Amino acid sequence: MAPDPAALLRNKPSKEDVLEYLLPVAEQIQFLFPDMERRLSQAQMDVSAIDHLAESLFRGLSTGGMVGVSLISMGMIFNDPFMLHLSILFTPLTALFGFFTYAKLPSIRAKKRVRELEKELPYALRHVLIEVKAGISVYHALVAVSEGYGEASEEFDRVVRDINSGMSEIEALERAVVRNPSLQFRRALWQIINALKSGSDVSKTLDSLVDAIVKKQILEVRKYGKELNPYTLMYMMAAIILPSLGVTFLMVLSTFTGAGISEGIFYGILVFLVFFQIMFINLIKSKRPAVKA
């Protein structure tokens, strides 16, 4: 008796069932990611390290399975044994790549938060400085910057909420230092904490902080400007000179040898140029300093 397709679909294991089977595997490989819990906290991802690793395994296996099925299907449709052999190689490689890519997602999100926070940090601290110089308490100054400064405001808002829940200002700031991935933000908070503990003038500390951060951002912009020169040369070589000279060389070579130039070569060059320009734009974006325009 042939199996009922509808029954098979009903009995198909759900994602939650698969994740439950992957949890023991995630526990075994957790030692490969010793700082996963901290990264998840810094990325504001409300999930445990083991659950995230199990989800990463599921994503990796799903990606590898889709690539494997696609290659096998293409091999069967076109009757190409090479595609079938290729699936044996690319399926586990794609699964591993998908797993490690998703496992590193907290680090990627944390770095993104750092860039967004440090972009607004000097403006938020300058606002706090103005409030404190006007005679307003540090708490009310933090309340004032808890909105309007993007990621920095979210961090200050969490500090304000901790203070409202019963913590002292120093305890709330120390907690923010532990959970935040930005070194620049942590240094700023530590100096404010030290000023509060010692009873010194917080406005002087904030003034020197803002000045130091602005000077650092100016240096980063200048460094970025200098780095653009070799990148521009690399772009001109790979995206303009090499394709132009390459096509000219192929045309001259075909003239002497009598061999024709297939359309596939031109399509290949076009695909390479599109891929290279996308990669180049992403590289320039990643190198751009976290400075508010």
Report on this structure.
With 293 residues, the chain is mainly α. It folds into three domains: 91 residues; 105 residues, Receptor-associated Protein, CATH 1.20.81; 67 residues. 82% of the residues lie in helices and 0% in strands. Helix 6 crosses helix 8, helix 6 runs antiparallel to helix 11 and helix 9 runs antiparallel to helix 10. It is flat. It starts with a helix and ends in a 6-residue tail after the last helix.
Structural Rg: 28 Å
Count of domain modules: 3
CATH topology of the largest domain: Receptor-associated Protein
Low-confidence spans: pLDDT under 50, at least 5 residues? 5-9
Shape: flat
State the distance separating the first and last CA atoms.
Answer: 70 Å
CATH architectural label of the largest domain: Up-down Bundle
Arithmetic mean of pLDDT: 84
Strand content: under 5%
State the helix count: 12
Alpha-beta classification: mainly alpha
Total strands? 0
Largest sheet: none
Summarize the helix and strand pattern as letters.
HHHHHHHHHHHH
CATH class of the largest domain: Mainly Alpha
- The amount of helix comes to over 70%
